[in-house]
Amino acid sequence: MNKLLVMLFTAMLFSCNNHAQVSPKQQDVINAEPIEVAMQNGKAKAYFASGCFWCVEAIYESVKGVDESISGYAGGHTKNPTYESSNTGRTGHAEAVEILYDPKVVSFETLVDVYFSSQNPTQINGQGGDKGSQYRSIIFYQNAEQKTIISNKIQALEKQLGEKVAAEVYPFQKFWIAEDYHQDYERLNPDNPYIQNVSVPRLNRFKRKMPGALKANH
Question: Which residue among 48, 49, 55, 113 has its CA within the 20 to 30 Å range from the CA of 83?
Fold first, then answer.
């Protein structure tokens, strides 16, 4: 009897964690036409999900040509997601970042390189100890050119690793900005244990991989 209960609990947990990928509403998001965000004052925007947005925000802000990185939610089928609702795994959203960048300084292709160089590309539904569909890796494209860039990068990386890349590829639809206290979290909370033990080491690993992409003060 106990064995049966464990099996049922495991099945329920697996179903919950993977709800975002299998629900019909989520499939509509995956099948949608991408929305292209217009450039403003010569600056473009790009969108990535790669585990905890505290970590990802800090990584992209260390990159030359990136003006700002904003934490939020994307990739799901519900409106107005919050930190609490996204953590249920039922909204379809993942913690994501909006990158404001100068395409004359840094290309979308380089931002994709930053993306894969700053994570474990084969981990499914999370990064490190942050696990669940809200922490899954998603890379968003806004047009056919970006989709091709992403596809080529994934194929090359899978060939190099000999493993399947876990990142999902989604057409960009909408980015929902996270609560104020999440913004610039690593910079404003340097003594937080998670920042010290997870976020900063992850940032430093990225810096060692792509030193040529870093701003002068990083």
Answer: 113
pTM over 0.85: yes
Pairing, β 168-171 against β 137-141: parallel
Q: Which amino acid is it at 13?
A: L
- How many other C-beta atoms can be found within 10 angstroms of the C-beta atom of residue 144? 9
Cβ(152)–Cβ(183) under 8 Å?
Answer: no
> Hey, which residues are catalytic here?
52
Domain boundary assignment for the chain: 24-213
2 phi and psi angles, rounded to 5 deg: -60, -40
Give CA–CA dist 93/107, Å, rounded: 26
d(CA 146, CA 85): 30
| Geometric angle at alpha carbon 30, from 28 and 33, rounded to 5° | 85
Model confidence at 110: pLDDT above 60: yes
Query: How far apart are the C-alpha atoms of 127 and 80, rounded to whole Å?
Result: 24
User: 110: which 2 tokens?
Assistant: 């380089």
Per-residue model confidence as pLDDT tens digits over 147-171: 999 999 999 999 999 999 999 999 9
**CATH code assigned to 24-213:** 3.30.1060.10
Helix or strand (DSSP H, E) at 186: helix 185-188
CB 33 within 8 A of CB 170: no
DSSP summary character for residue 182:
G
Buried b (16+ CB within 10 A) or exposed e, 189-214: eeeeebbeebbbebbeebbeebeebe
Tokens representing 203?
A: 């940032």
